[in-house]
């Protein structure tokens, strides 16, 4: 098994970075995911949005990586959001209660609206 995870980081708003995730999120993707997070955080982003639209596969190790990422994000007092999850992975987020820590949205626009609109 190898690392079939591809990430792309882009700025979506002043303090918001998006990490586009493609391929497989498993234990082999840790370095790739954490490097993407480092790049996303570098611009002093307050919010990191994970785009799972092109996710092909995620296993329990991938879920574990998301938990590790979540802990790092919380330590930096940032917010972690997600969109593009298939119904299957939305269900896994609910079962693992990750959806309580990572807000899930239907689209990038919905996630951006949630973070850029004053409460």
Q: Any chance you could write out the topology, listing elements then pairs?
A:
Blueprint: E1 5-13, E2 16-25, H1 30-42, E3 47-58, H2 60-75, E4 79-83, H3 87-95, E5 103-105, H4 108-116
Parallel strand pairs: 2-3, 3-4, 4-5
Antiparallel strand pairs: 1-2
Task: Describe the model.
The protein is an alpha/beta fold. It has a single domain, classed as STAS domain (Transcription Regulator spoIIAA). The chain is about 40% helix and about 35% strand. The protein contains 4 helices and 5 strands; from the N terminus they run E-E-H-E-H-E-H-E-H. A 5-stranded mixed β-sheet has the order 1-2-3-4-5, with helices on both faces. Strand 1 (about 5-15) and strand 2 form a beta hairpin. The longest helix is centred in the middle third of the chain and has 16 residues, at about 60-75. It is globular, with a radius of gyration of 13 Å. The model has no long low-confidence stretch (mean pLDDT about 95).
In brief, what are we looking at here?
The protein is of the alpha/beta class.
What is the structural class?
alpha/beta
Strand content bin: 25-35%
Low-confidence stretches: none
Order of helices and strands: EEHEHEHEH
Average pLDDT figure: 94
CATH architecture: 2-Layer Sandwich
Superfamily at the CATH H level? STAS domain
Q: Keyphrases for this structure?
A:
globular, 39% helix, Transcription Regulator spoIIAA, 5 strands, alpha/beta, 119 residues
């Amino acid at each position: 098994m190898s690392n079939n995870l591809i990430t792309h980081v882009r700025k979506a708003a002043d303090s918001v970075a998006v990490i586009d995730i493609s391929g497989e999120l498993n234990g082999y993707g840790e370095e790739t995911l954490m490097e993407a997070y480092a790049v996303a955080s570098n611009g002093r982003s307050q919010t990191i949005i994970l785009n799972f639209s092109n996710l092909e596969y995620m296993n329990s190790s991938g879920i574990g990586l998301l938990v590790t990422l979540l802990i790092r994000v919380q330590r930096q007092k940032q917010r972690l959001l997600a969109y593009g999850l298939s119904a299957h992975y939305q269900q896994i987020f609910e079962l693992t209660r990750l959806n309580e820590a990572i807000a899930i949205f239907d689209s990038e626009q919905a996630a951006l609206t949630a973070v850029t609109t004053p409460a």
